[in-house]
């Protein structure tokens, strides 16, 4: 019987949905009150933490640890229509005693076995009653900062999905545990300070598939060896703000879950569905001290205390039902599904048996299901299990097996731990805001002081100009007046002289010599009078000169005032010099931090090479290895200290320094900051991307090229940054750098950046047009394994995007990779000794071969035989399956194999 999605018979991988965005709305305002109608847990949870939070923002310590047994409740499903007819003459094989929390399983009409559970739920128990007994204590623990797990186990058709995942769209009373748990969580959190994100995926045939994005399958499980935490980072995480968006998410996920029609259930789940809810809550009222290096608490730490954040996780597991093949009637593919389900459930049972018996070895790695539930049984989570059974005596064996599973689970003890950490990001934002305010206030004060100085200087200049103008006008008026008086006196004398001359001529004959002498005497007297008048005029001129001297002394006093103002300006210049000295100190601190980072990397190199885990399709940041190892926390602390003391804008300004050493250390710091996803958006907004591209264009230093290319590779992991890099001519600069570089590390950084850009299907045509593919192919001249691995990853990303474009119908012609001549190198390295190079090349070959338009060129280049080898010998199951499917579906490949007389189908 063929497996299908719940909304129709659509084959796996054929349906692609857009990944949902975060849906924001106001949350419920009602407070979440604890109401637990069931019995108290075996071991309570302390509400107040007595532990301490580490100084480092990246480290998280358990606040408290308490023991808590796995709580198990049993729920009986009522008889269905088929059982009422088939078992009408037989009594139920189960007898419930809910008041005693007991269950009796009949062996025959006169003998039975009795079992005790934490709670016994009859067939009449409401969904609300089930939630309050089974799930509500776990939800309360999650809101208090503990991890929690709610799981349903039982035979196919006994009501596991009904108990956990019922949406209650027609009747709200039918809502299951998932919906009710999210209602309580949203009612308790504060949207401004808290956050809730949800992932929904299924474990099908030992492969993890994202239910929110079905194309995203074969997701890896990541385990933290230090803390023991298990996570699925490859699954889609959606921020939840209201209940409506959560219901839409559950509805979308259920449509993609695998289901099939069997004799036991018309819509039997063929996979284990797992809902993972991550809750982050800010803890108020907690005092914490951040000690400086000498052990004393700094003034800044007292003024700005970072808030404490509690991170917890709720895991709701809807297991696929166990079944017997002869009863379910499974066959063909459904039979294989049933085998996979029974194997994973068997592995889970073995782990619980080992934990219940305190065995030294717990086989958690026998199945991906047990790896995912590693924290739920014997870990740090508070776990509540509901086992579902049916009343039919025909299935007594399966019912007994389910009951024994629950009995063994009740013996498992977990150590509950609360997790807290400082929210240094919000503290950094507060410090940045305070710094910006102080800088703005200082600039306003400095601008006001400069304006006041300019105003005083302008007023003094105006006064001096007016005084000089008044002095000049008064002097000119006096000069003109004395000149006029002098001219008038001369004129009068000339007139008198003329008159006297006339009289003298008329009376010459009559006058005697005596009269002539008397006239001369008179004239002499007049001349003496004129001389006296002239001396008086000169004395008046001297007085005016004295007044001018007084005005000049006043001008000197004004000049002294100007000198005072200039002295004030010099004081301001001294303050400015002090600020520049402080900036120089910050620059020296930046250089010191960069030297410390270099020393850390040299220590890591002497201690051994750190290799990062990664998948074929996930780009690895070139600088991420600097954050691993024993010195990783110290370097992160140095970066946080650098942010607090210097600021991103000042760090970026050092990229333009004329000092080559300062420029090198500055670009190293920017590259290390770019390795953190939280810093990438800040770097781009502050102009860091343009500065890095400018360095590639203008600098001739090999070290700057290497580190700048590494920083660009980190930024190129973000889709928005990829478009910015392309729009600013980044691929051309990277291609030129690749052509000039000889150092393998520089080529690895450049190849990593281009490989990240190759993963964006929107930019493929532009990337190829600006020489990106040819640049990748040109870098194989280095022959260094790390460089070749990045080249292979870029080609694989490009081929995958092309394959997606073929499928969507947006591309019809031959592959651009084949047109640019990469196929011979791909075929040559398809069986490379280095596994990273080989896996990427194998994936690229499979994507190219999926489309018939490329088949002829691939046959001609010898790629067909590599595909045959991959389908038989590849270590990766998904690549081997893809190669086999490609060979069997291509007419050209089948024709060539028949021509060569090779039976492959």
From TrEMBL:
Protein name per Swiss-Prot or TrEMBL: Kinesin-like protein
Molecular-function GO term, any one: microtubule binding
Matching InterPro entries: ARM-like (IPR011989), ARM-type_fold (IPR016024), Armadillo (IPR000225), KIF11-like (IPR047149), Kinesin_motor_CS (IPR019821), Kinesin_motor_dom (IPR001752), Kinesin_motor_dom_sf (IPR036961), P-loop_NTPase (IPR027417)
GO annotation, biological process: microtubule-based movement; mitotic spindle assembly; spindle elongation
Domain Kinesin motor: 69-412
Family the UniProt entry places it in: Belongs to the TRAFAC class myosin-kinesin ATPase superfamily. Kinesin family. Ungrouped subfamily.
Residue spans of the ARM repeats: 646-688, 687-730
Polar residues: compositionally biased ranges: 50-64
Subunit organization: Interacts (via C-terminus) with NEK5.
Location relative to the cell: Cytoplasm, Cytoskeleton
Coiled coil: 439-596
Family annotation (Gene3D superfamilies): Kinesin motor domain, Leucine-rich Repeat Variant
Residues binding ATP, per UniProt: 154-161
Keywords attached to this entry: ATP-binding, Coiled coil, Cytoplasm, Cytoskeleton, Microtubule, Motor protein, Nucleotide-binding, Repeat
Biased composition (Low complexity): 22-37
Stretches for region Disordered: 1-64
PROSITE patterns: ARM_REPEAT (PS50176), KINESIN_MOTOR_1 (PS00411), KINESIN_MOTOR_2 (PS50067)
Pfam families xref list: Arm, Kinesin
Gene Ontology cellular-component terms listed: mitotic spindle; spindle microtubule
Highest rank taxon of the organism: Eukaryota
